[in-house]
Known about the structure:
Layout: E1 7-10, H1 20-28, E2 39-43, E3 49-56, E4 59-66, E5 84-87, H2 89-96, E6 106-112, H3 120-125, H4 127-130, E7 131-137
Parallel strand pairs: 1-2
Antiparallel strand pairs: 1-5, 2-3, 3-4, 6-7
Amino acid sequence: MNENNRFVxxxxxxxxxxxxDSLCGAVRxxxxxxxxxxxxxxxxxxxxxxxxxxxxRGGYTLYYKRLSKxxxxxxxxxxxxxxxxxxxxxxxxxxxxxxxxxxxRRKRFQTASSSFSNDNAKLSSHSENTCMKSWLSR
Length: 138
């Protein structure tokens, strides 16, 4: 699976307790062929799990990604009907990493170290030394 594949994402969430056969049935219900080599992307309603269904030479491959915390971007479901929409390889990679492909800017957050004392005076004087600034896109 690489950027040469076509990636198609479901408009609506799906019950991801389903296996390969049920996901193929969902693809066929939209008059698409799961054997054509496209990669079909499914997500659950709570946006914590992604499954990718892909036909390779010897059979189906099912990729599974579950976030340990957080959710995938809320705009992954367009809810404009039943079916699939095409997405690009780079959009899929960003989605799998939990980054919104539509983020206009990066947001800064601070991660506190475990060596903070409970004293407010020490906390304010050492905040520059004990906080690490990180930049993430959300």
